[in-house]
Amino acid sequence: MATTTAFALVALSKALSWNEALSGVFGSISLATWIFLLVPQLILNYTTGSADGISLAFLTVWLLGDITNLAGAIWAGLVPTVTALAVYFCFADFVLISQCLFYNHLNARREAINEAAAPPDSEEAPLLARERSNESIGAPGARRRSSTHLSHSSGARRDSLVKILEDDVSGSGSSWKRNTWSILMVILVGTAGWAIAWRSGVWRPTPNHPGDVPSKEHVAVGASVLGYLSAVCYLGARIPQIIKNYRDKSCEGLSLLFFVLSLMGNITYGVSILLHSLEREYIMTNLPWLIGSLGTIVEDGFIFVQFRMYARDSGSAVEA
């Protein structure tokens, strides 16, 4: 990230100060990160034909955070690009939630059909049920995984998925390289986007004089309340996912890249705000968004610990 940023700064005019340029670059990288954030989880759900790994409560609370963020942006009269991005967030959340509901309904219906089509009880049935029960409790998260093997074709797809997921959590093999390249491409797109916006005049640094920093009195009280409510939603959204991972003793069905991009987006967004100005009025004005972004870093870090811990418990190799 530092190398890419340095090249961008050298190529640009010296009219910008270092903190202005860095603030713009990190802000643009954060924007690119949020745009591509949900794509890895959408692809993983589609590939597996399941959304068992992700908590709907997590997505629902996150959607509430994005809705309040959008309402606050409109109420505060923020620039159109901020409002448009908030609209995109709500749309992306709706797509992911709809996909999860679709797969949950589809798999539940398939399971009901399989149970209805099961042969009548016989003398061997108790033995078979006992064998299935032993298999389901043999490893953490096995019960949830076995319930998704609803047909021969889906079973084959799940078997191939297990190896992919093990690569994801172990940080090795082609998956590690793919995730690394994805992160580098997001950084490149964000930096290039800012450079183009700066050269074309679309982006200009916000004045940073004491009299130009908006005070809290100039921000609608209702907009500030919505901003803090949005921050609370973002902070609370990951708690259901952390609890679900703990109960299942598994992170299977979750995209590691999804949480890596979330972490990177929160860090770059917070850094872009702090690099722009450290004046008290400016910090207080942006405090709700700082809390929502920087506060979730700890929770994302906890989920990374769960990825490694449950990968080790399931026997997957985890590299340092």
UniProtKB/TrEMBL annotation:
Record localization: Membrane
InterPro entries: LAAT-1, PQ-loop_rpt
Keyword Transmembrane carried by entry: yes
Matches recorded under Pfam families: PQ-loop
Molecular-function GO terms, alphabetical: basic amino acid transmembrane transporter activity
Record-level GO cellular component terms: lytic vacuole membrane
Ranges annotated as spanning the membrane: 84-103, 180-198, 218-236, 256-275, 287-305
Membrane topology according to the record: Multi-pass membrane protein
Keyword Manganese included in the entry's annotation: no
Reaction equation(s) it catalyzes: L-histidine(out) + L-arginine(in) = L-histidine(in) + L-arginine(out)
Region entry Disordered, spans: 135-155
PANTHER family hit by this protein: SEVEN TRANSMEMBRANE PROTEIN 1, SEVEN TRANSMEMBRANE PROTEIN 1-RELATED
Protein name: Vacuolar membrane PQ loop repeat protein
Species: Pseudogymnoascus verrucosus
